[in-house]
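Tutorial, part two.
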Amino acid sequence: MKKLIVFDLDGTLAESKSAIDDEMAARLCDLLGVLRVAVISGGDWPQFEKQVLSHLPHDERLKQLSILPTCGTKFFQYDGAWKKLYSEDFNDGGRAKVTGSLPKAHAAPGRKPGRGWGGVAVEWAWGTAAGRRAGGAPGGWGGRSQPGGGGTVRGVGPAVGTVNRSP
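Running the prediction step on this input gives:
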């Protein structure tokens, strides 16, 4: 029997940037009663609070839920309260290096900007080889709400929901 199911948030559990509906909240609660669940998304912690956690009962089942904001660079678990177990954040030097390089990379000859959702930084990260290595699809997002979405979670096998395609 499976012990963990991992879902992408936007385009899988909920419409992009929208809250989970009542039916999804009920199904997620039922699932948390029998096994562990993790939810990952490109959004940060406040997005999870608004889109998911505010729609679930605050009871012991939350101990079965792991939240992975910002593409898994942060990890939260519940033990009476939500606790951040790790956060892989840029330091000031790393942030300055990346943001200083983005305009040059974005203007590179032959580069065709894809469909963007969050400005140059988000579009650039998901539309480049670095973004694809992190799980993004070439030129944009995979996922059920986009044409050609679907695939597998690396090292896990066929996806239960729909996730970004492997390159």
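The first helix runs from residue 22 to 32. In part three we will examine how such features are distributed along the chain.
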